[in-house]
């Protein structure tokens, strides 16, 4: 492997219900509240679209002006939740980032969040020195499930072959992005939005309990240089 593309919320960052809460608060600003049929439909769309561009999700629900208003409300709500609740890495994620980079594999953090929210998360975790590149939907023509984010990471990080890329995420959209990009490892983790069946159906090549297990999958095995004596 030469490049590892890792998702944020639910994969490397413990999400809890922050994203769902921010989404519910955002659509509430447009009058869509809990208990209504419109709320149920919107939450179903949100769950199925996890991992995708947040503005794209809102555009699938509303006209452009309302989508932009909802997206702005989402970002404000999420930022407020980060301020009140804080953020923590998925257990083992920080060590995984360090080990992957120490092995010479370049790390890109991908997200469906907007740029300011992505930066807010990385600031909160102090991860700027853990990664080589960060990408969000604003950096590419098409967000997930299209392959653009992974292929852009390959270009910017100088990958020689897409088969030398590993993708890791917690949603079906993460898996689709990885498979469409040609990455040879597309690992789904069980710490986020979608379950094993959802991830496998979307094309996961591996299912891991968490991103902490990714290192064993992509790092070269240690060489045993011990020599057994010949006691003839």
Task: Characterize the structure shown.
It holds the Pfam family Hydrolase. It comes from Actinomadura soli. Keywords: Hydrolase. One of its GO terms (biological process) is DNA repair. GO terms for molecular function: phosphoglycolate phosphatase activity. By secondary structure, the protein is an alpha/beta fold. It has 2 domains: 3-14 and 89-218, HAD superfamily/HAD-like (Rossmann fold, 3-Layer(aba) Sandwich), CATH 3.40.50; 18-85, no CATH class. 45% of the residues lie in helices and 11% in strands. It has helices spanning 18-28, 37-48, 54-61, 64-85, 93-102, 115-125, 148-156, 172-181, 196-201, 214-218, and strands spanning 3-7, 106-110, 133-135, 165-169, 185-189, 206-208. A 6-stranded parallel beta sheet has the order 3-2-1-4-5-6. Strand 5, helix 9 and strand 6 (206-208) form a beta-alpha-beta unit. Helix 1 crosses helix 4 (64-85). The protein is globular.
How many β-strand runs? 6
Order of helices and strands: EHHHHHEHEHEHEHEH
Enumerate how many helices there are, as a single number: 10
| DSSP strand content | 5-15%
Helical fraction: 40-55%
GO molecular function: phosphoglycolate phosphatase activity
InterPro entries: HAD-like_hydrolase_sf, HAD-like_sf, HAD_sf
Keywords: Hydrolase
Pfam family, one: Hydrolase
């Amino acid at each position: 492997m030469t490049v590892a593309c890792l998702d944020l919320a639910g994969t490397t960052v413990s999400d809890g219900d922050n994203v769902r809460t921010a989404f519910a608060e955002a659509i509430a600003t447009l009058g869509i509240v809990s208990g209504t049929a419109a709320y149920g439909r919107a939450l179903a769309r949100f769950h199925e679209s996890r991992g995708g561009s947040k503005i794209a999700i809102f555009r699938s629900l509303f006209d452009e002006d309302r989508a932009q208003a909802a997206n702005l409300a989402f970002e404000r709500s999420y930022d407020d939740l980060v301020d009140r609740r804080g953020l923590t890495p998925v257990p083992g994620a920080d060590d995984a980032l360090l080990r992957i980079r120490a092995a010479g594999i370049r790390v890109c953090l991908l997200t469906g969040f907007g740029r300011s929210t992505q930066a807010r998360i990385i600031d909160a975790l102090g991860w700027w020195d853990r990664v080589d590149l960060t990408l969000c939907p604003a950096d590419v023509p098409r967000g997930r499930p299209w392959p653009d984010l992974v292929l852009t990471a390959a270009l910017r990080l100088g990958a020689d072959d897409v088969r030398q890329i590993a993708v890791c995420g917690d949603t079906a959209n993460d898996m689709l992005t990885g498979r469409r990009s040609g990455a040879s490892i597309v690992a789904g983790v069980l710490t986020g939005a979608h379950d094993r069946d959802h991830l496998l159906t979307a094309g996961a090549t591996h299912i891991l309990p968490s991103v902490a297990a990714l290192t064993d999958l992509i790092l070269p095995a240690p060489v045993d240089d011990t020599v057994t004596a010949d006691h003839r």
